[in-house]
Amino acid sequence: MLTIAIPQLYCGASGKKGAYNRQEVGLARALAAQGCRTVVLYPAVGAQDIETEEPAPGVKILYVPARAWRVHAFYSTWQPLLDEKVDAVHVMGDNSLGVPGLYRFCQEHGIFFYSQLGALRSQSGSAAIRAAMDLL
What we know:
Distance between the termini: 33 Å
Helix content: 25-40%
Number of strands: 7
Shape: globular
Mean pLDDT: 87
Oligomer: single chain
Largest sheet: 7 strands, mixed
Strand content: 25-35%
Number of helices: 4
Radius of gyration: 15 Å
Order of helices and strands: EHEEEEHEHEH
Structural class: alpha/beta
């Protein structure tokens, strides 16, 4: 069975327990319905230990200790990806400062990494950033 991890790299209001819009969990449920096992990782700023939740068959949520800088999450460890025997990491956006470290970890451990962006063009208020992102 394919195991896909979906880490949240944003430290903001979304993704919190009880929050209405947890897109990662919705995607995890849909992937589980297709026969995949999914592991969602949420940053737990200030936490010392990993907490686990299993909201549906084939869906596991891990709240992993992390630190934050503004809205960017930096996980204390990516070891859960190995512990859960993850085959692929699905990143929902590549504009977080935590992405390069996650990418390197995946490369070092033979975990397939892919990024899915839900936009065709950048919505940045900066013309320089918008031009650079639209080229990519």
